[in-house]
Design brief:
The complex is a heterodimer.
Chain A: E1 4-13, E2 16-26, E3 31-35, H1 42-50, E4 57-62, E5 65-66, E6 77-80, H2 92-102, H3 107-121, H4 136-149, E7 154-158, H5 166-183, E8 186-191, H6 194-200, E9 203-208, E10 211-216, H7 218-223, H8 228-233, E11 240-249, E12 252-257, E13 260-264, E14 271-277, E15 292-302, E16 306-313, E17 318-324, E18 334-338, E19 344-347, E20 354-357
Helix pairs in contact in A: 2-3, 2-4, 3-4
Chain B: H1 2-32, H2 37-42, H3 54-62, H4 65-96, H5 102-111, H6 121-130, H7 137-160, H8 165-173, H9 179-189, H10 191-206, H11 210-215, H12 224-234, H13 239-270
Helix pairs in contact in B: 1-13, 3-13, 4-7, 4-10, 4-12, 7-10, 10-13, 12-13
Classes of the chains: A alpha+beta, B mainly alpha.
């Protein structure tokens, strides 16, 4: 197994940069998830690690060996594609052994490794079938099996679950996490699905517009987002991001969000700010906390285990709160929810950077 | 219910009419191939009540049909093999690689498809004479390769361009590169398209008369279409024997098509790109 390191990597198509100065280190045996919306550069970054895209500037190292000029086939990596990219003219057995045949692995060893991979993925009954005779989930497992038999230094996954239905995605997610535990392999996994990222990753690298927005464990990036983009991208419903104004009062700050007033013990310079509060931190209680967000309920979504309530904050935008399923409020009724200390984020409205957590 | 029967009847009627229109001439020639010329002259459309199978033996033994057939097979098979290999490689390069001048090369190849073959005949004849290729099987084969190559590249390039890029990237990561990718991925995945071009090229070249009559004059180098023409001059337009000769020429093509179309359908269903 190996480490993967990107140092100040740029990718330009002509004069247009799509990856800006990305630096990232994936530790040996780590499951790193590259997460971000479409077009953020996560797949391009993965393809540069794989050797399928050239690097305009910077360095990519696998196991401390410089890979910039090394072709894909010599990087000792395996990749699972979004479309699976199974060879349609070969059966499952041939698909699994194709890479090993090129590397002149003895026939008996190929057979043994294919059989082992097929057994671990439950593919034994399908070894003589061609890809068109397999279901989506089976194809996906063949694609993973093709990577496993190679026993590579690094596994790369490019949105491998996005073609599966919701139920299959959940079970395959667990299978892939189990696979990572069993193999202890270094894996880099690209997805735009935050649930996949949160449940599978040892760490998550969130990308925005070709840049690394934040790297951290799932709970770190969720609880302590480095900027408003990360805060708004993670969570369903996402963090409430509200426009407000900061006014220094005494040793602290008064934050005005519409007609609501929140009092922080920390000082902030006067001016516009973006205030962030996670929906699940807004819970009805007798406490005042940092202040109360009040308004009239505009929608109530009963999800069974929980209830998502939206209310119009007087003089500001809509706020969402994730409450328990016993909540009995109705549309049009008044609601007032306190902001708990330690659950408020203040961002710079221009740069989006985190200014304060209170 | 009544409307269903009506529309079904109309459909069957249209299909029957089309079948008669396309298969009619073939059936007529097949019928004539079993009748003598005097019988045909007396009643052109009458069926062969007493089929004269001996005409096939006579056509084969009294004429040079064995040689014509061999020439046709050798020239057509060699031409089709070369056209398929070179055409598939060119199509693979045009579909897969982005290189300087790619569009110009593509346009130059494809532009030759629009010219009628007749306009090149005189120049072609001169070139053949100049390079001692006139009246040689090699010369005719080279011409066949040259005239069929553009359409082959055109058809295959369109199909190869639809093979997902991820397959090639997967092969790259599996350790395959350059020409290996062509043999291991493009050829097998593109087999349905390749089989189509093999059928089209083989039938087209097997039936070619124009280039063969211009380039070949020696009787021992004639292909089947030229052999049939011999009956028109040498045997006073023996229409019955011409029909017999045509059937001898057509039967291999029909067998070839029957065999390959089966393979083609198998290839399409088994190797389909999903």
């Amino acid at each position: 197994m190996a480490t993967v390191e990107l140092s100040r990597v740029w990718k330009r198509y002509g004069q247009v940069p799509v990856i800006h100065d990305v630096s990232l280190r994936v530790e040996d045996g780590e499951f790193m998830v590259l997460l971000g919306p479409s077009g953020c550069g996560k797949s391009t970054t993965l393809r540069m690690i794989a050797g399928l895209e050239s690097i305009s500037e910077g360095e990519v190292r696998i196991d401390d060996r410089l890979m910039n000029g090394v072709p894909a086939k010599a990087r000792d990596i395996a990749m699972v594609f979004q479309s699976y990219a199974l060879y349609p003219h070969m059966n499952v057995r041939e698909n699994l052994g194709f890479g090993l045949r090129r590397r002149s692995v003895p026939r008996e060893e190929i057979a043994a490794r294919v059989a082992k991979a097929a057994a671990s993925l439950g593919l034994e009954p399908y070894l003589d079938r061609r890809p068109h005779a397999l279901s989506g989930g089976q194809r996906q497992r063949v694609a993973v099996g093709r990577a496993i038999v190679r026993d590579p230094k690094v596994f790369l996954f490019d949105e491998p679950l996005s073609n599966l239905d919701a139920a299959l995605r959940v079970s395959t997610r667990a299978e892939l996490t189990g696979l990572h535990r069993r193999l202890g392999a270094t894996m880099v996994y690209v997805t735009h699905d935050q649930v996949e990222a949160m449940t599978m990753g040892s760490r998550i690298c969130i990308m925005q517009d070709g840049r690394v927005a934040q790297v951290g464990t799932p709970m770190e990036v969720y609880r302590e987002p480095a900027n408003a983009f990360v805060a708004g991208f993670l969570g369903a419903p996402p963090m409430n991001l509200l426009s407000g104004r900061a006014e220094p009062i005494g040793g602290g700050t008064e934050l005005r969000v519409g007609e609501a007033v929140l009092r922080l013990p920390q000082p902030l310079p006067p001016g516009s700010v973006t205030v962030g509060v996670r929906p699940e931190t807004l819970q009805p209680s007798g406490e005042v906390g940092l202040g109360r967000l009040e308004g009239r309920i505009t929608s109530v979504e009963q999800l069974g285990a929980e209830t998502i309530v939206a209310f119009e904050l007087a003089g500001a935008a809509t706020v969402r709160a994730r409450l328990d399923n016993t909540f009995a409020g109705a549309i049009g009724e008044a609601i007032a929810l306190p902001v708990r200390p330690g659950c408020l984020h203040v961002f710079d409205p221009e740069t989006g950077a985190l200014v304060l957590r209170a | 219910m009544r409307r269903d029967w009506l529309s079904r009847g109309l459909l069957w009627g249209a299909l029957a009419l089309y079948t008669v229109y396309t298969a009619g001439p073939f059936v007529w020639v097949a019928n004539m191939s079993l009748r003598t010329t005097p019988e045909i002259m007396a009643a052109p459309y009458a069926p062969a009540w007493t089929p004269h199978w001996w005409k096939f033996v006579e056509a084969w033994t009294t004429s040079n049909y064995g040689t014509y057939l061999w020439n046709s097979v050798a020239i057509c098979v060699a031409s089709v093999v070369i056209v398929t290999l070179v055409g598939a490689m060119a199509a693979h390069a045009l579909a897969r690689y982005r290189f300087r001048g790619r569009r110009i090369v593509g346009a130059a190849i494809f532009s030759t498809i629009i010219f009628p073959p007749q306009i090149t005949i005189i120049a072609l004849f001169q070139i053949m004479v100049e390079y001692d290729l006139y009246d040689t099987r090699l010369g005719l084969m080279l011409v066949y390769v040259a005239i069929q190559l553009p359409l082959t590249v055109y058809l295959l390039e369109a199909f190869f361009a639809r093979i997902p890029e991820a397959l090639y990237e997967a092969a790259k990561i599996d350790g395959y590169g350059g020409i290996e990718v062509f043999w291991k991925i493009t050829l097998p995945v593109g087999f349905p398209a390749i089989a189509t071009t093999i059928i089209l090229n083989f039938i087209h070249l097997w039936n070619d008369f124009l280039y063969a009559v211009v380039i070949i004059s020696d009787d021992n180098k004639r292909t089947l279409p030229l052999g049939i023409q011999k009956f028109m001059g040498d045997q006073m337009e023996d229409i019955g024997m011409i029909a017999t000769g045509m059937m001898i020429a057509v039967i291999p093509v029909v067998l070839f098509y029957a065999f390959f179309s089966e393979r083609l359908i198998q290839g399409m269903t088994a190797g389909a790109v999903k």
